[in-house]
């Protein structure tokens, strides 16, 4: 730890103590290290021998794991009460982090997803989409903005800005994108509803879609799914 030069030092105190430092520190530190080596045969740091023992023993940590496994959404206060402890909640939080039981968002899922027929349908869906060519996929999304989203304050000697004046009027944008980057979009006044979406698909998106054709490539049809049915563009 401190180099081999320390072991060649004798117990005789030299005239110039600065020679004893050797980058370690004060002369008292060197004397204590030598005394520790004579007493224990090593200068390795000893463990903490004083203070109160930790209340989170291995048995209690196993109990914490069981409680969290049984109730993943248990709060720190409920966990402390179940353990019968009086420690601070922050202490319990640090113990959970050290155990790898970090706090995550709970994703609630319906029980219908566990039904056998739904699982079988999902497997069929995944099997079919393996043969879909990405150039035939069209992704649609919508976004919106309101006039009252403009910031009303700014840092300047004299701030001037312009924004549409109104009472929170909403403008929605519906757009689609393909793997090659091509896109079609439209803007409507107000929030997106069924009528606006159908109008976008009928008047904007549909004219850009290619008809169902058989594209020859690598000896097989790329426009058919695994079960032999045509898939849309």
Describe this structure in words.
- With 233 residues, this protein is α+β, with helices and mostly antiparallel strands.
- Among the domains are: 37 residues, no CATH class; 41 residues; 59 residues, no CATH class.
- It is 32% helix and 12% strand.
- The chain is built from 7 helices and 5 strands, in the order H-H-H-H-H-H-E-E-E-H-E-E.
- The strands form 2 sheets. Strands 1-2-3 form a 3-stranded antiparallel β-sheet, covered by helices on one side. The protein has a two-stranded antiparallel sheet with strand order 4-5.
- The C terminus is likely disordered.
Question: Roughly what percent helix?
Answer: 25-40%
Q: List SSEs in N-to-C order.
A: HHHHHHEEEHEE
What's the end-to-end separation, in Å? 70 Å
**Radius of gyration of CA atoms, rounded to a whole number:** 36 Å
Shape: elongated
What are the segments in which pLDDT stays under 50 over at least 5 consecutive residues?
9-15, 212-233
Quaternary organisation: single chain
Topology:
Layout: H1 18-21, H2 27-40, H3 58-70, H4 76-83, H5 89-98, H6 116-129, E1 139-146, E2 170-177, E3 183-189, H7 194-205, E4 216-217, E5 220-221
Antiparallel strand pairs: 1-2, 2-3, 4-5
């Amino acid at each position: 730890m401190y180099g081999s030069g320390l072991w060649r030092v004798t117990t005789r105190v030299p005239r110039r103590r600065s020679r004893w430092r050797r980058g370690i520190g004060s002369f008292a530190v060197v004397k204590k290290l030598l005394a520790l080596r004579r007493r224990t045969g090593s200068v390795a740091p000893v463990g903490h021998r004083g203070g109160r023992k930790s209340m989170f023993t291995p048995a209690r940590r196993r109990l914490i794991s069981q409680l969290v496994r049984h109730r993943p959404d248990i709060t720190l206060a409920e966990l402390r009460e179940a353990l019968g402890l009086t420690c601070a909640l922050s202490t319990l939080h640090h113990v959970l982090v050290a155990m790898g039981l970090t706090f995550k968002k709970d994703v609630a899922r319906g029980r219908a997803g566990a039904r056998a027929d739904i699982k079988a349908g999902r497997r069929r869906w995944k099997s079919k989409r393996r043969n879909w060519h990405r150039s035939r996929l069209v992704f649609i999304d919508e976004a919106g903005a309101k006039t009252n989203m403009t910031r009303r304050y700014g840092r300047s000697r004299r701030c001037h800005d312009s924004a549409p004046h109104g009472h929170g009027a909403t403008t929605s944008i519906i757009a689609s994108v393909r793997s090659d980057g091509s896109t079609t979009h439209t803007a409507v006044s107000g929030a997106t509803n069924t009528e606006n979406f159908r109008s976008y698909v009928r008047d904007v998106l549909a004219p850009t879609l290619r008809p169902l054709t058989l594209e020859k490539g690598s000896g097989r049809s790329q426009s058919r799914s695994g079960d032999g049915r045509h898939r849309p563009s």
